[in-house]
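Form P-L/3: holo structure prediction, ligand 6-O-phosphono-beta-D-tagatofuranose.
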Amino acid sequence: MRELEAKFGVDGAIEFEMCDELVCCNIQNDVCSGRIFLHGAHVSQFQPTGKRPLLFTSEQAIFRDGTAIRGGIPICFPWFGSHATDSSLPSHGLVRQKSWELKSVEVDSRKSILELATTTELFDVRYMAEFGEQLKVTLHVSNSSDKPQSFEAALHSYFQLSNVKDVLVTGLESVGYLDQLEPKEHPPSGHPIEFTEETDRIYQSTGNTITIIDEGLGREIVIEKSNSQSTVVWNPWIAKSSRMSDFDDDQWQNMCCIETANIGSEAIKLEPGYAIEMGATHSITESSS
Ligand code: TA6
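OUTPUT (holo model):
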């Protein structure tokens, strides 16, 4: 950690500490604070100055090698969900449980930009996290092999809510979806999403901006995607929460995931040496009331 502090540390702006077994970087500037782990390049906190935290991180989250952090923004890559052919491989890919290398830090009074990198057998991966008035995260994937390669990716963002039963999610009213729990394809619902049970949906062919309307906290969370054609909406509800050891039984009430992704039929195929970026800009608008 001393090497990180010497190379990247900025007193009061970029500081490193251990969280259990993992190294995290605490970010502070005039407009926000945040936290990112080298483990999984995992953003776990973002809070605009004077506003409530944007992201949900489980109070039971585990911070150690080989375990994905429950909450924040896990990076799912190069596959989403279970591996297509090898059930022994981890859910949601390899990189959220890897230690990434911090490549660069750029700070000024209103913006802190960190770039991290990792590799897999077939890809070079970079991740830019920009902590400012908004939280902007960008995944850059390049095919480092000598053959065309396909991958899935998702920024599996967990958002802090007053109560999931009281929020509305707009932006997907006109998009059909696969209900992963059935599984069954559904036509567009024609209305905002309300959570009344375990919800695990994949919306395809949509780059739409998503808004979480949370009257309980008097705010809206806006997720503007870039280069993403899939959106996953998830809440574990009661039964699944009770089966998650790194998640309190009742915490399902205070979160939902809106995931910026390219998965399934929207998986990305890259020619050798080619690259693509996918990202999301997250912002909070406080209701005028
Ligand atoms: O994105 C929704 C989902 O695929 C759910 O099916 C649920 O498994 C969730 O991700 C969390 O997965 P994880 O491997 O982080 O427990």
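COMMENT: The pocket of 6-O-phosphono-beta-D-tagatofuranose is lined by residues 68, 81, 91-92, 156, 180, 200, 232, 234, 257, 259 (CB under 6 Å).
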